Each structure stands twice: as C-alpha cells, then as structure tokens.
C-alpha cells in the first residue's frame, strides 16, 4: 500500500492548487471522490461474489456428503429389509397355510356438510359496516346532494 502521511497529502494538495487552479479544483475533487467511490463499490462487489462462490462450493461439498450418507443409510435399510423379508417368509411358511388377513376397514360414506352454500363466508357483518361508517346502499350523486344539503332556516 502507498504510505500517505499528512505532509504528503498537503504537498499534493498544494501542487494541485497551483497546477489546476482554485476554480477547477472543487469540481476535480468531486470527480475524484465519485470515481474512488465507484472503485470501492466495484471491489466490494467482487469480494462478495468471491465469497458467494466459496460458500456455494462449500454447500456443494456438504450436499454431496449428505447425499452419500443418505445413500449409505438407504442401502443398509434395504439390506436389513431384505433380511427381514426372508425371515418373515420363513416364519410364515413354517406356520402352515393359516394366513391371517388384516381386518377390512369400511370406508365411511360421504356426508354433505349441511352448510348454507349461498351465504358468503367472507362478507363483512352489517353491524361492523354501520359502526365503521361504510356505505351499504348505493346512491346517485343527485340523491346524495339532496340528502346532505343544509335545510333552509325559516327566519322572518
């Protein structure tokens, strides 16, 4: 890294003030600041992308190890299941031809829920509409004006 102390920065500023001039120096400083900001954002984006790719590689390795373990467990279950099936077949063949079937379960008949299907389930109750001031009846503009027009006072 470049080692910039206060004295070096002051020297660079003085030279820039003499060479560029006091009129153009603020605009140049803003331009340099925006360019440095863009460069920093670009570097941060690249760092984030590298970190994401490293995490993705780690996740892939972890996924492969978990899948391998799952395959091992599945294979061991299948071998144990085949051993169990063989021993079950031997046990049932020794007992003879008396096979016990599981009790049959009757499927219940469909029963209509007996609800009023015409009733709108998601409607807002009328008492809530009245309490909150929601209009429940449609009126034309002229009817609304006539309804809410102030009554003429009968002063003599």
From TrEMBL:
Main subcellular location of this protein, as a coarse class: membrane
Compartments, as annotated in UniProt: Cell membrane; Membrane
Region feature Disordered, mapped onto this chain: 72-116, 131-156
A molecular-function term among this protein's GO annotations: protein transmembrane transporter activity
Positions with biased composition (Basic residues): 146-156
Pfam families assigned to the protein according to its UniProt record, in alphabetical order: TatA_B_E
Record membrane topology: Single-pass membrane protein
One Gene Ontology biological process: protein transport by the Tat complex
GO cellular component terms attached to this protein's record: TAT protein transport complex
Biased composition (Low complexity): 89-108
Keywords: Cell inner membrane, Cell membrane, Membrane, Protein transport, Translocation, Transmembrane, Transmembrane helix, Transport
Top-level division of the source organism's lineage: Bacteria
Family: Belongs to the TatB family.
Matching HAMAP family: TatB
Complex formation: The Tat system comprises two distinct complexes: a TatABC complex, containing multiple copies of TatA, TatB and TatC subunits, and a separate TatA complex, containing only TatA subunits. Substrates initially bind to the TatABC complex, which probably triggers association of the separate TatA complex to form the active translocon.
PANTHER family per record: SEC-INDEPENDENT PROTEIN TRANSLOCASE PROTEIN TATA, CHLOROPLASTIC
Function statement: Part of the twin-arginine translocation (Tat) system that transports large folded proteins containing a characteristic twin-arginine motif in their signal peptide across membranes. Together with TatC, TatB is part of a receptor directly interacting with Tat signal peptides. TatB may form an oligomeric binding site that transiently accommodates folded Tat precursor proteins before their translocation.
Protein name from the UniProt record: Sec-independent protein translocase protein TatB
């Amino acid at each position: 890294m470049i080692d910039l102390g206060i004295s070096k920065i002051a020297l660079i500023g003085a030279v820039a003030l003499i060479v560029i001039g006091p009129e153009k120096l603020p605009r140049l400083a803003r331009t340099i600041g925006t360019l440095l900001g863009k460069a920093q954002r670009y570097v941060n984006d690249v760092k984030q992308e590298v970190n994401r790719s490293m995490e993705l590689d780690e996740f892939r390795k972890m996924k492969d190890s978990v899948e391998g373990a799952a395959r091992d467990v599945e294979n061991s279950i299948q071998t144990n299941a085949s051993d169990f099936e063989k021993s079950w077949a031997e046990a049932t063949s020794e007992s003879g031809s008396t096979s016990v079937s599981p009790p049959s379960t009757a499927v219940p008949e469909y029963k209509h829920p007996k609800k009023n299907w015409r009733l709108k389930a998601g409607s807002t109750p009328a008492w809530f509409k009245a309490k909150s001031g929601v209009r429940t009846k449609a009126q034309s503009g002229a009817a609304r004006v006539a309804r809410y027009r102030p009554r003429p006072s009968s002063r003599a």
